[in-house]
């Protein structure tokens, strides 16, 4: 099958899975802004709208199906990314970024593998801090520091830790660089490769990546403010 056996097919798979992941990141960012809204308006404990969102997206069949689908997309995207990167290295060696024209090669394009590894590490940290304490805990019928659906408390407690705060910023920065190149590159692979469309998608990529970064960063800062400053979750 050409989607798995050819270089172009693999790039198409990467582009489609990447586009789906960008849409999920956008949804996840917008969902987390509900937490910011709760803090700004001073929603009373027990009535947080973010907790209601977490309850709705708890362990319902569609949430479990969506989680499994998302996990599959992440695995496919990064497996294909590693395959294409190593094929590129093998084919071109030290000249893999040589170009015949005057258009420069973006820094993000040269370092997509490193950025991808940082993104994967960030995903694992996020899963450990939130998914394992919320969805997994609800499935297992266990309870940690807070109830599995107490998303507001989990964000406030977790993201106000100074070490995690820095790690999340590094993760968000890697995501920003990854997205600024990945979005327009995906669109180019899928056919929007004319000069006019390419320039438009490059502009859209930077705007989209910046909006996602700022949204997540706002959640981090809001958690610290809501907590009343930094604290260590280990002590």
> Domains counted in the coordinates: how many?
1
- Please tell me how large the radius of gyration is: 20 Å
Order of helices and strands: HHHHHHHHHH
In helices, the fraction of residues equals over 70%
Q: What is the second-level CATH architecture?
A: Up-down Bundle
N-C termini distance = 54 Å
CATH class: Mainly Alpha
Strand segment tally: 0
From the structure provided, what is the oligomeric state, counting identical versus distinct chains? Answer: single chain
Helical segment count: 10
Chain-averaged pLDDT: 87
CATH level-3 fold name: 3 helical TM bundles of succinate and fumarate reductases
Q: Low-confidence stretches at least 5 residues in length (pLDDT < 50)?
A: 95-102
What portion of the residues fall into strands of 2 or more residues? under 5%
Largest sheet: none
* Shape label: globular
| Helix/strand/pairing category | mainly alpha
Provide structural commentary:
By secondary structure, the protein is mainly alpha-helical. The protein has one domain (2-94, 104-227): 3 helical TM bundles of succinate and fumarate reductases (Up-down Bundle). 76% of the residues lie in helices and 0% in strands.
